[in-house]
Structure formats: structure tokens, C-alpha cells
Predict the structure.
Amino acid sequence: MSDRLAGLVLLLLAVTYGIAASGYQAMIGDPLGPAVFPVALAIPLALLSLYLILRPDAGPDWPRGRPLLKQVAALVTFAAYAYLLEPLGFVVSTFLAVVVLGSLLGARPWQAAAAGLAIAVVLFVLFDTLLSLPLPAGVLAFPG
């Protein structure tokens, strides 16, 4: 029953997300428009939620104890990442999020820090330089 409820909630989320994204207006010269990526996420989410509704697990095993705490910590990390993205900037908030998530997955502190630094820098270069997408600079912003 819990799989069907989760599938129903995810299906409602996918439909709402897809409808909201379809209203985005395209900028001049943008052949695809801003709605393509969110709709491209909503479609697989809807299909996977339908799978949960139509073919639920007969006896789902819910996490308890430490695994449950790790899942809650991961959710808190994602929420904190979204909240801190503007004030701290993309590089710092991405670095911190990857370090925390890496630690939750069992990485040593130096491994999590190295991965966090590499991922934050590579994604910043990819999005800011190659794709020309503006990212929040946060604490790394230069005055002027």
C-alpha cells in the first residue's frame, strides 16, 4: 500500500511540475525554450510513479535506526543546499553539500572534500563558462 501512496504523490508532483513548467516563456533566439528540461524531468517521474502504482512491492522493508537517520540527513542537506545557494554561492554551497553527502555515503573526510572541490569547480566551469548560465556567486562575489 505504501508504494501505491508514494506513487500517487509522485504522480501528482510530476503532473503539477509539468503543468507549471509548460507555462514558461521562451526567450528570443532560444529554439527549445525553458520548459524543455523541467518537462523532460516530469515525464520519467510520471512513468516511474505509474510503475509504483501498478506494480507495488509486496512487502516493502522500511529503514530503521541509522539508515533512516542518514536518509533524513540527506534530505536536510538538499534543503540546506537550496536555502544556502544564494547567500553562499554555487561553489561554496555545492562543495559543502557534496562533502556532507559523501560523508553520509561512507567517504573519508579527505575523499569527500576532494570530491566536493572537484565537483563544485567542474560544474561551475561547465555551467558558467561553457553554457553561459548565471550562477550565484555568494561570498565569492567581488564588490563593484
Q: What stands out?
A: The chain has a mean pLDDT of 85. Residues 2-54 form one domain. The chain has two domains: 2-54, 66-140.
